[in-house]
Each structure stands twice: as C-alpha cells, then as structure tokens.
Design brief:
Structural class: alpha+beta
Number of domains: 1
Order of helices and strands: EHEEHEEHEEHH
Largest sheet: 5 strands, mixed, barrel
CATH superfamily: Gamma-glutamyl cyclotransferase-like
Shape: globular
Strand order of the largest sheet: 1-3-2-4-5
Number of helices: 5
Length: about 200
C-alpha cells in the first residue's frame, strides 16, 4: 500500500509542531526546540495497529498505538525549528510509515490544555482501511498479542510499559493502557528491562 502523506504545501513555512501520543513521547528521535503538554480532540490513543516489524512479525504480530476516531488524546507537542523541518518529516516517515499503516495529517492541538493556545501539529492517525488496522480489541486479545509480539525494536511488552511510564511521568492516565500494563507486569521480569536506546 502507498503511504498516505502530506504534500510540501501542507506544511507551515515556519517551525513545525509534532504531536506524540505513544513512543514519540519517550523516544522522539529528532531534535526539537521545546516540548509542551498538548491535547488533541477528535481522536484517541488506542492499541489498534497490528505490528509486523517494530514490535512483532507477520507470523506473530504485536500491537502498537494509533490515533483512532473519536474522543480526545493527551500527549506531547514538540516544536521543531524550520531549518530541521524537512529532515524531521523524512525521519518520521521512515519510522512511522514502514508499512504505510498511518495517515499523515495536520491536526489542531491545544498546548498545556489552554483553549487559547492552539497550534497545528503533524500527527499519525490509524488508517482504518489498512490490513494492519486491528480496531477495538478486548483486553484479553490485546494481552495475548502484546505478550507474543517481538520485533526489530524488541518485545512488545516493553513498548507498552515504557509508554505507560512516560504517560505517568507527565501526569497522564490512560485507563485501558494502564489496565493492560498492570496485567503485563507479572510477565515482564528484570531480565527484560527496557532499554531506552532501542
């Protein structure tokens, strides 16, 4: 499938904001000028993407986050300097669009939860028409996939636990993700400690 990406004219001719809601929070992988707590309305964080590369394989898929339709999402907005905009977008496309499962979009986000301070930010939204879109899974189904998933970036459980830890550090509670993390803690030992450099 062809990646659904924005054209150059869709980006601002100024600094670029990037909205992180999952692993971008704890491992952005690009240089930024500042980061701010941010809220996106209209989509929510969801373990709705089968992972075939980063946290799973085609034989044993894992499960990663996407922005899915409805609700709201508390995350982090990163401001990237205009000079680094092109290289940052290229990096994000290589990272997020390895199987073209996301739609690249610009979304309004409110910084620090302040309705008066709104910016347009680059975000990666789940493509519901993609074969890797898992939709709404039960907690048991999520747990099974996350426990089996292991891809190029390591165990799927590490990804979920690192995301929950990063959310907690910022005072964000994502109830479904926290429930899953609580179940995973029994299956993750000290030997599988999270490596932030993965």
């Amino acid at each position: 499938m062809t990646a659904k990406t924005l054209s150059d004219s869709d980006f601002p001719d100024s600094d670029l904001w990037v909205f992180g809601y999952g692993s971008l929070i704890w491992k952005p992988g690009f240089e930024f000028v500042e980061q701010r707590s941010a809220r996106l309305i209209g989509e929510h964080r969801s373990l709705c993407i089968y992972s075939m590369v980063h946290r799973g394989t085609y034989e044993k898929p894992g499960l990663v986050l996407g922005l899915d339709r409805g609700g709201a999402c508390q995350g982090v907005a990163f401001r990237v300097s205009r000079q680094r905009r092109a290289e940052t977008v290229a990096y994000l496309r290589e990272r997020e669009q390895v199987t073209s499962v996301y739609r690249e979009v610009m979304r309004s986000v409110w910084l620090d939860g302040d309705a008066r301070e709104r910016v347009r930010a680059l975000a990666y939204v789940a493509d519901r028409g993609h074969t890797q879109y898992a939709g709404r899974l039960t907690l048991d189904e999520q747990l099974r996939l996350v426990r089996q998933g292991h891809g190029q970036y390591g165990p799927n459980a590490e990804y979920v636990l690192a995301t929950v830890k990063a959310l907690e550090t910022r005072g964000i509670r994502d109830t479904p993700l926290h429930h899953l993390a609580a179940l995973l803690h029994g299956g993750v030992t000290a030997a599988t400690k999270f490596d932030p450099d993965l």
